# Entry
Amino acid sequence: MAHGVVQLTRRRFGETMRRDAWWLPPLGAFVVLSSFLVYATWAAFQNANYEYGPYLSPFYSPLLFGPSPHAWFRSAPAWLPAISPALLILPFPAGFRFTCYYYRGTYYKAFWADPPGCAVGEPRTTYRGERKLPLVIQNVHRYFLYFAIAFLFILASDAWKGYWFADASGAKHFGIGIGSLVLTMNVVLLSGYTLGCHSLRHLVGGYLDRMAGRPVRRTTYACVSCLNRGHMNWAWASLFWVAFTDVYVRLCAMGIWHDWRLV
# Structure
């Protein structure tokens, strides 16, 4: 039986046979990620209004130097230039997100149109992959994972401190404010995102051919896999909430919002 030969031609940029609104997801990702980058950059350079009572903005945590009770050390070394504390620590969580496997696929479409969508023509005719500069840098994601896990412990400590309020004499008492819950939710969402990382899934057992006879590894792998299945949702929820947490602390410090004490 004779078969007709179908000639495949490369689609022009944006050309597609899809009839759905395929451009909405990349457009939404472009707007949200751009807004976050602009706000985070602005907040990092403010060097003000990042703490309120027992609350510390996650953009400035850990606060390494300064007279604040949240600071780890009272004075910075002489060789360190006078810069915003956020600029010392934000590159680590930013590096983890920027090289995340999920975010790569998202901003490749939204910012680079590589491709702009499935079955949609892209503005280039060659494929470079992630083996050459600058995309080869994406391979450092597995190393940023270790920093991200360490930050979870630091932020969890900040959330715990957010439940202890000082009275007029300086003595601290347990209490619950709206900010306490905001900081706690930030840790929960960041933990769901970080602990569902593809690199962590491989690290705890993804490279093994068999899980039989390794009950601890098998359970850990199952837990990470469970979080990994919702990695996209954790990624967006944690991105929004970490920015909202900074907004909450900032507006309280500026006197615009009032932190209601529930207990």
Q: What stands out?
A: Strands lie at 51-52, 55-56, 164-166, 172-174. The first helix runs from residue 24 to 46. Residues 24-72+81-253 form one domain. The chain has one domain: 24-72+81-253.
